[in-house]
Design brief:
The chain has helices at about 1-5, 10-30, 35-45, 55-75, 80-85, 85-110, 115-125, 130-140, 145-175, 185-205, 210-215, 220-240, 245-255, 260-285, 290-295, 295-320, 325-335, 340-350, 360-380, 380-390, 425-435, 450-455, 470-475, 500-510, 525-530, 540-555; strands at about 420, 440-445, 460-465, 480-485, 515-520, 535-540, 560, 570. It is mostly helical. The N and C termini lie far apart (about 60 Å). The strands form 2 sheets. Strands 3-2-1-4-5-6 form a 6-stranded parallel β-sheet, sandwiched between helices. The chain is globular. It has 26 helices and 8 strands. Residues about 175-185, about 405-415, about 490-495 and about 560-574 have low confidence and may be disordered. Helix 10 (about 185-205) packs parallel to helix 13 (about 245-255).
Length: about 575
């Protein structure tokens, strides 16, 4: 067994098994894989099992993982990106970065870290994890909500800051190695190589990228291999001339960012990125001496509290000043309550350049473990957390919330006979058919685009969150005979919160005396929803199949029961 673990292949196999086991434990604890992967490095390192021996092989996989990660960042940096950023995302993102950098730097000085180390740590604290935030918001079906869209804007701004920080860091590191020499000459030489690489990227984008990617797309596997090869060769060239492999991988991504196949490339490379980054976190964790981390605990706790509390507060304050509701600002602010994998990579670059000591990387790693673990639960239970904090958040909301999408009822909504929550395809189709029968409808959705789309189709619609009791109380509940929820609930999501049950409870609590219908794509939920207070459970696929059989066989329609106050027909609930 000892001989197996000391062979490179056996070592990697044991690390993968350990990663699978700890990853499963992390999944049970609802933690992102980043936390589990760092734990793998700590457990496999010299402070515990001491499995990691083939450091050269693991470092090679780690470096390739970083190159692929930066490539995927670059591939999303399209030339049109800056113009697509909304003012709220740009101003709030830059404001959060500036606030975190300045106060993080001051906290570092107060802890006696030194000017350079404090600056590195402060900049590292400004980055939030795109992977974690998108995953959590997607699981909660809030990626298209207003606060979700603003959060994505934050991530874009932070990605741009990452780009600038990596380039500046590489430039600062030029000529700082051993041997002295003409530092200015080295800087000019490497900057010349950098400009040459940028020029090559521009020429590639203008004349080669589209036709070449179109030809390669005929064989998707070849397109992926080409993308990896481009990332690797750019990273190798940039590292050779002194810019650093991170900048090279980034430029390779930018070279393909304008092609119509960038999303396909990104989707296919995401699993490879996650696999290779495992070895980066293993190498990171294995390099940390647990016996020395105790000295960083007070500083890690202080920085963690700063990220968990300070970052959301500055986002909430800026969005409130811009005219957004306190609820929107609070939910958006929670998404920046952690640091990311880029934070660790950034400080690791500083260590490799000799700017900071390895202890700084240990400090930032501890902050990462604490903030990522804590913020996962904060985002998962964001609505409950908001309910607890809501009484003290009034100072962050301007009167009238002028920048918030219209949340009140429109002129025709005051007499709405049916309130429809969720303006996707199913909800919109219900609304259009009810209006054809002369029934007044008010649609509600937390996606501003869905609201605009419904209004374009002639449906009265407003922006709002079905789980917000304040918003629900403002709706014309007394005039409505029915309340319909067409929001699907995906099984196996990160959070067990059910918007349908929440809507039923809040509606009854707000005095709604009409009937409530909810959609379900899972037959097992029907009885549970009826028991929770729903008067009718709609099963779109089953209902569509029944209607299709009727049309195909020419059989008469199954017996239907008229819905009081509407006149339309729906299956009688069991």
């Amino acid at each position: 067994m000892e001989a197996l673990l000391h062979s490179p292949f056996g070592e990697v196999a044991s690390l993968l098994v350990l990663a699978a086991v700890l990853g499963f434990v992390g999944l049970l604890l609802r933690q992102p894989l980043i936390v589990s992967f760092i734990a793998v490095g700590l457990v496999a390192g010299p402070s515990a099992f001491d499995i990691v021996r083939s450091s050269d092989q693991i470092d090679l996989l780690s470096q390739l993982g970083i190159a692929v990660l930066l490539f995927l960042v670059g591939i999303k940096l399209d030339v049109k990106l800056i113009r697509s950023l909304g003012a709220v995302s740009l101003l709030t993102g830059l404001g959060q970065v500036a606030f975190t950098s300045v106060f993080g730097y001051l906290i570092g000085l107060g802890l006696g870290l030194g000017h350079v180390t404090s600056l590195y740590v402060a900049v590292a604290l400004t980055f939030s994890s795109t992977i974690i935030i998108v995953k959590l918001l997607s699981d909660k079906r809030e990626i298209d909500a207003l606060h979700g869209q603003i959060a994505l804007g934050f991530l874009i701004v932070q990605d741009l800051v990452v780009v600038l920080a990596m380039i500046v860091l590489s430039a600062i590191g030029i000529g700082s190695g051993e041997g002295g020499g003409d530092g200015t000459g080295n800087v000019l030489s490497v900057l010349g190589f950098g400009l040459a690489m940028v020029g090559a990227v521009v020429l590639f984008v203008r004349h080669v990228a589209d036709p070449l990617s179109e030809r390669l797309a005929r064989a998707p596997e070849l397109l992926v291999i080409f993308a990896i090869a481009l990332a690797a060769i750019f990273a190798a060239l940039a590292d050779f001339v002194g810019l650093g492999m991170e900048v090279g991988g980034l430029l390779a991504g930018v070279a393909l960012a304008s092609t119509p196949y960038r999303e396909t490339i990104a989707a296919r490379l995401a699993p490879l990125r996650d696999f290779l980054l495992l070895f980066f976190f293993i190498a990171l964790g294995a390099a940390l001496d647990l016996s020395l981390l105790g000295a960083h605990v007070p500083g890690a706790i202080l920085f963690s509290l700063f990220v968990l509390i300070g970052n959301p507060l500055i986002v909430l304050a800026i969005m409130g000043a811009m005219g957004y509701r306190k609820r929107t600002g609070f939910l958006a602010g929670l998404t920046v309550a952690q640091i990311s994998e880029f934070s660790l990579i950034f400080v690791a670059m500083g260590v490799s350049l000799g700017h900071v000591a390895p202890e700084a990387l240990g400090l930032v790693t501890m902050v990462g473990l604490v903030t990522i673990a804590a913020s996962t639960y904060m985002i998962t239970y964001s609505h409950r957390l908001y309910d607890l904090c809501e009484p003290v958040l009034g100072i962050f909301e301007r009167r009238g919330t002028p920048r918030e999408p219209e949340a009140g009822a429109t002129s025709g909504a005051a007499r709405a006979g049916v309130l429809i929550f969720g303006l996707g395809r199913f909800g919109t189709a219900i609304g259009m058919r009810l209006q054809k029968r002369g029934i007044d409808v008010l649609g509600v959705d937390f996606n501003p685009q869905a609201v605009r789309r419904a209004r374009a189709l002639g449906i009265e619609a407003c922006y709002g969150d079905a789980s917000d009791p304040e918003f629900l109380a403002e709706l014309p509940l007394a005039a409505a005979a029915w309340m319909v929820s067409s929001v699907p609930i995906l099984p196996g999501g990160l959070t067990q919160e059910d918007t349908r049950r929440t809507l039923i409870q809040l509606a009854r609590g707000a005095g709604f005396r009409g009937r409530i219908a909810v959609a379900s794509h899972n037959a097992a939920d029907t009885q549970d929803l009826l028991g929770a207070g729903a008067d009718l459970v709609l099963e779109p696929f089953q209902d569509a199949a029944d209607r299709a059989v009727e049309l195909l066989t020419g059989a008469p329609e199954t017996e239907r029961t008229a819905i009081p106050g509407i006149g339309s027909e729906a299956p009688q609930p069991a």
